[in-house]
Amino acid sequence: MFSFTLEHQEAHSGARLGLIRTAHGEIRTPVFMPVGTQGTVKALTPEDLVSLEVQVILANTYHLYLRPGHDRIRRLGGLHRFMHWDRPILTDSGGYQVFSLGALRKITPAGVSFQSHLDGSRHFLTPELALEIQTALGSDMAMCLDECPPYPATYEYVRSSLELTRQWAERCRQARGENGPALFGIVQGGVFPDLRRAGAEALMEIGFDGYALGGLSVGEPPAERLETITRSLPLLPADRPRYLMGLGTPEDLVEGVEQGADMFDCVLPTRNARNGMLFTRQGAVIIKNAAYAEDPGPIDPECGCYTCRHYSRAYLRHLYLAKELLSYRLHTWHNLYYFMELMQEIRQAVVHDRFREFKIAFYRKRKESS
Amino acid sequence: MFSFTLEHQEAHSGARLGLIRTAHGEIRTPVFMPVGTQGTVKALTPEDLVSLEVQVILANTYHLYLRPGHDRIRRLGGLHRFMHWDRPILTDSGGYQVFSLGALRKITPAGVSFQSHLDGSRHFLTPELALEIQTALGSDMAMCLDECPPYPATYEYVRSSLELTRQWAERCRQARGENGPALFGIVQGGVFPDLRRAGAEALMEIGFDGYALGGLSVGEPPAERLETITRSLPLLPADRPRYLMGLGTPEDLVEGVEQGADMFDCVLPTRNARNGMLFTRQGAVIIKNAAYAEDPGPIDPECGCYTCRHYSRAYLRHLYLAKELLSYRLHTWHNLYYFMELMQEIRQAVVHDRFREFKIAFYRKRKESS
Q: In angstroms, what CA-CA distances link A300 with A197, A285, A327?
């Protein structure tokens, strides 16, 4: 069970509101999906995520395939039950991690062979296996296996990679069958506008439940990234969810929504939390700074999160320097609260056709305090 | 403000019920105090501790003195405020950690000089400084600085160490003054019955709000430890809380209560949790065992804790092997729940003069399953 309803489209920007329905509940878009790589959003419980109004999380196929194994998770009742999370889960295809974490990768038309980063064991990931894993996990939204070309890459390389991605998408569509998870195609094409267009058209011809822009934030200059997003998002069908993969600075979210993106995921809020980098409306707080050693104030005086209501910067700095486990939890809570609230404010702005005003205020606040 | 009321004494065992009153609330004894070394019980929030019905925690003077510093904590409003915990706190004197963690220790009658385990800086801990630090932290119950002799140690060594501990106790009592925290004396004396007796009598002559047995679990054989506890606890005044320091297997708690101990602290439940060793009524569960790889059951089918209600052994094993932060939190929750419930059951048994029956059932259950 899967559907997408476009509920509102702003007249003067690409920003829009949508409703995704899945067997595990509804998702109001635009939405940010925290990353739960190994069947847990690091340091938080599912109850914490519900308190934070997280609507959907992303789980990583590559990690769960290697450990504890998708067959094991299937036998234990699927990933939702395994990790005690009953809201929607989107799974990636595993491809991106094979390219970024696996060793001795070798790509052939049949699939990609690689060595596990955990134990060096050899594996062969095909489009069909990617679907099999995601189905075994009980994913609500699965992604097609794709090849994500590096940056920079030649036009020739990206063009032939795009053809491989198209063939794999077709095989994933086949492999999904009638009772599998909702399936998203991934538009590649690097920073070449005509390849992005060709990629989008090829996927639309196959037909998917949703469409993603992939291969961004792989080293390309920010201006080329924004240019690619701005040109590519409008190519995707308006009546399907559009997912901007792996992008997640607050600015990325604001710019992406403006161009019509509905879904985002990124490790940034959770990973930066663990590294002591905290998001606020005024910009980043680096908690280890000596200036905070006796600061009795919260991370962000304007924030209403659990961490900001109860803990001083001085205490958080102490926990961070002492490498205390509570540090990761309190920081992750704060950063996800910031991201969830940002998306809530964005949705509110779009309801009232005031996204442009929202965006101006968003940037003004940062400028004032920098 | 501090008082102790002995509310019930069993006729046929040393087990007793008491009520400690502090400025931060009441404590029903016998009580187990989780250890919050650096101003946090590792992986848990104060709200978690309240959910677990933790009545009082122990904080380590040595650690907080070195980082972030007691003066800093005092300027930030004291340890309760710093760490967002409004129930009672007992602080140790710092002596034990100086001996176990500090380097280049040198003991003189004036105090003990040592090098920080963090940065090698040199420090000199005196009885007066130990009280000053604990007072700055805002401790509800402070401990006298003592010397904890190693095991084995000669009678002569322990005897002269005991005299030093007596002198330091006198200076701590002086340094406390009229408005300081409640102060506990620590009975040393190794495994020598006459020295334990002399130590207890010397402290009672000075007069303290509570009395602790120290210097146990430092390498002595379990039989000698139990013998020392059994002989020494009855020497302490019945109208003051009796604190059995640093002991904390479930068996230690049961045996200690039987001999009349009111207070316990130990890193065991929290440290073992982080190492994947989980307490159950039937004995220990070592979560990494391959046998649990697809086990859909909880750690302990008889346990009602959050972790056991929602997570399988298979999932907990996965989190543990993947070194996921949530692992430490879920395990710590379970182990502290077990310890808190054990103490609750002990108090219930003593109310009904049924401690002996409780103890028999406690050991029978373990025997049956081993």
A: 42, 9, 16
